[in-house]
Write a structure and sequence with these properties.
Strand content of chain A: 15-25%
Helix content of chain A: 40-55%
Number of strands of chain B: 9
Shape of chain A: globular
Strand content of chain B: 5-15%
Largest sheet of chain A: 6 strands, mixed
Helix content of chain B: 40-55%
Number of strands of chain A: 14
Number of helices of chain A: 16
Largest sheet of chain B: 9 strands, parallel
Radius of gyration of chain A: 19 Å
Distance between the termini of chain A: 45 Å
Order of helices and strands of chain B: HEHEHHEHHEHEEHEHEHEHHH
Shape of chain B: globular
Radius of gyration of chain B: 17 Å
Largest interface: A-B, 36 and 41 residues
Oligomer: heterodimer
Amino acid sequence: MQTALPDNRGYFGAFGGRYVPETLMSALYELDDAYQRFKHDGPSQVRLKSLLDTFVGRPTPLYFAERLTAHVGGARILLKREDLAHTGAHKINNAVGQVLLANFMGKSRIIAETGAGQHGVATATACALLGCECHVYMGSEDTKRQRMNVFRMELLGASVISVDSGSKTLKDAINEAIRDWVTNVGTTHYVIGSVVGPHPYPMMVRDFQSVIGSESVVQCLACYEQLPDAVVACVGGGSNAIGIFHAFLDEEVELYGVEAGGKGLHTPDHAAPLASGSVGVLHGARSYLMADDDAQVLSTHSVSAGLDYPGVGPEHAYLKDSGRVQYFAADDQEALEALSLLSRIEGIIPALESAHALAYAIQLAKRLGKERTVLVNLSGRGDKDLDIVRNAV
Amino acid sequence: MTISQTFERLRSQDEIALIPYMTAGFPTLRKSIDHLETVARSGGDIIEVGIPFSDPVADGPTIQYASQVALENGVTLAKTLDALSHVDLGKPLVAMSYLNPLTAYGMERLFDDLRAARVTGLIIPDLPAEEADDWQASAEGAGIDLVFLIAPTSTSQRIKHIAERSQGFLYYVSITGITGARSALAKSLPDRLAEIRKVTDTPIAVGFGISTPEQVRSLRSYADAAVVGSRIIDAVRREENLFDLIKDLKAATRNTHTARHED
């Protein structure tokens, strides 16, 4: 069974682990222990379920994109509408789960990192909901690009800390959040936004996001009496992809992860560590990452800030090497085209991240042909990307 | 002289060791080698050299800055080890870097080249004891001391486990936090060090936040060594007299009472 991983040391095969400064090690064991108790604590699970239903707006719809399907002329295309979750993306599933867990552990100071701002907004929202102090680290390049999300977080009562070190983007925001955690570990819980970082984060974030896949299974069986033939999701750190894949891992369903091809995999300007990276250790886990010949971590490029990250979750590295999931890349141009196509013919403006999954799903639907079904995780809505799209088109 | 012999010699002289830290490649590779020679001559007992990494999560702004400058200068692990192989500091040399560049270099090649560069100890801040089996085996084979860190947050069970593994010395992280100068040492320090002493005879170095001769002097009662890092990087940045800085820090490691009698 692929779903039984990680092992008790946090490994998915050769990937994962806990590679952090000693100061954090006890906190990781504590977190692992608290999470196991939280998972089996009746009242906590009832509370989580109730918040997902009444606050987040779950289950999110499974939508048959009829006009898109007709336009492509291949397999039936279904969309899992995570864009309709509160705050506009799947990130809220994990944020609500982890902030509840922090309350359970008696920690009321929350820190988080954010790239485009979606995970920051989701965490700030969960903190407002559950009465926690919230500090969000964001690269200074990103605070400039995503000013509206900075304002949203501040309106929700969070403080946004602009990070000026390194490349001034998501990677450095994570470094700075880790440094904060090293300093304030006694009082603080770090809400990591993706299936990255040291054990137990990749497992825990996956569990909180796996509601996407389990709902999809129920909805597919209810509406179509069968599972889809293929599931497609975009992969930055990889939380929405793991979230939807997990319920399908032991089923006969093809799984496809789509990384950010940026300006093309033949250029240095992309963010596709699974497609063209090497194995290394970044942010506490062994996984694929983008690094130069001397193993210095590279700056990445993607039109989508949420995919603009040199690392990827260790479970994806494992699923790539085991062959269970196939990983491809869609470039900036393909994502932009998919975004405008879906907007025009379905009335849905997807996030640029999700548009990468859509771009690949369109090719796949053509290849698979009629009578087959492709399920796409539409992980977020595109309102945050309007300036970027307007400048690019 | 090995790290252990150095500690023995200093103990017999009623001194603790001064371990100055420098980032290789800051402000340039050439100058950083010159500075290493200066700190070795002016009182450094064991010399720690940092090899730059793009994402140094255990380090504060000062060492981050030095690492970034070094990387912009094109300084790599290979270039650093090559440069070090052409000098003899006459003092034990300990290298510090993060797991990613060290792993990518290849373990066997790394330990060969560390030996060629006269490096006798290695500190990897993002390698916890439970992930270190391979590293320990290779380090032992090469005769290089693999030094582990203990933090204020380490449980007694962890302390025991880490103390059993650490070779040469144990590195006690004086504060819950990242590297960088602090005005005061943690109040818990004496108790924590006493707790560690109960389970091990391995010498204990205290680092993170140590910047003044007063702090070094106060460590004499509890520790076997003081590591000073960010303060030295700041001195290089401000072009202060490095020789005098190290001389003053070293003086604080000695028993002033005895010294006065000698006068």
